[in-house]
Amino acid sequence: MRQSRAGQETRVSDGHAERLTEYVSSVARERRWPNQRPRDAATLIVIDRGGAAPKVLMGKRHHGHKFMPGKFVFPGGRIEADDRRMPAEGALPPPVEAALIARTVRPSPSRGRALALTAIRETYEETGLMIGRRAESMPAGPRAGSWASFFERGILPDLGAVHFIGRAITPPRRPKRFDTRFFAIDREAIALEEPGFVGPDKELVELLWVEVEEAMKLDLPPITVVMLQELERRAEEGFGHELPVPFYYERQKRFVRELLGPA
Predict the structure, then answer these.
(1) What's the CATH number where 157 sits?
(2) Has residue 28 been placed in a domain?
(3) Rounded Cα distance, 16 and 228, in Å
(4) Which residue has the higher pLDDT, 160 or 64?
(5) Which of 130, 159, 173, 259 could be a cystine partner for 192, CB 3.0 to 4.6 Å?
(6) CB atoms within 10 A of CB 37
């Protein structure tokens, strides 16, 4: 196994890393846009373990979107200023915090915390699912935008229940570039489900709870295919917070997979 300056370029005996990097590298991509710096973003995989096989929540994007129209995705989006100020229940587990600050410019635990909150906020905005715990009293915090709904309902987002399972940077010269952190959480962490967030005039037109094997048959972005397989691998290895986190990025037009986490 070869060390890199930021992590480990993984070579596992069953070919898992090689198979996924080969797949995501082989996807044809137009590269006709001016290059831009990737923006911080986060997404959340909600897992339902209540049946014989685990299911994940996926949403179908509106066909009118310029970005990934009609694709099935996990809820998520860009970080916002209020994500840095929102109070929360609990704290990120130390291994999660360590993996989030690895391979970042000006590493900061507060940035990792904000990204986890971004995933929770975006999930609410796109699906109506409010991740968190009911609080006896609400502390000071941003009372505008989507976080205002959490305050109105007396719910604090729960960081202790969050797993960090992957990170990926969009290749250069694409129309939009993101440095996306992929989080996962159990469906039991949902404190409230509100209707009216999904429909023909919304960002997501359909929601599905689907087993991973069936999800792989949907129209998915390539990195979503990769993260579903990383999710399965993580489950096989016990789904512990201490497991290293795969990080995908492009080097010389080929994807590299590194592992992030505590030294």
Answers:
(1) 3.90.79.10
(2) no
(3) 13
(4) 160
(5) 130
(6) 6
Three-class DSSP category at 89? strand
Task: State the average pLDDT over residues 56-81.
Answer: 85
DSSP-based three-state secondary structure for 178: strand
Answer yes or no: is 95 within a domain: yes
Number of domain units in the chain: 1
- Name the amino acid, one letter, at 161: A
d(CA 6, CA 72) in angstroms, rounded, equals 32
**Predicted pLDDT at 106:** 87
| Domain presence at residue 259 | no
Contact (CB, 8 A) for 105 and 141: no
Both tokens assigned to 46: 């909600």
Between CA 75 and CA 187 the distance in angstroms is 14
Q: Would 158 be classed as within a structural domain? A: yes
Looking at residue 208, what is its pLDDT? 95
Q: Helix crossing, 145-153 with 109-127: angle to 10°?
A: 80
Q: What are the residues facing 89 on neighbouring strands? A: 158
Question: How many beta carbons lie within 10 A of that of residue 109, not counting itself?
Answer: 14
* Domain extent for 205: 37-249
pTM here is 0.90
pLDDT of residue 46: 98
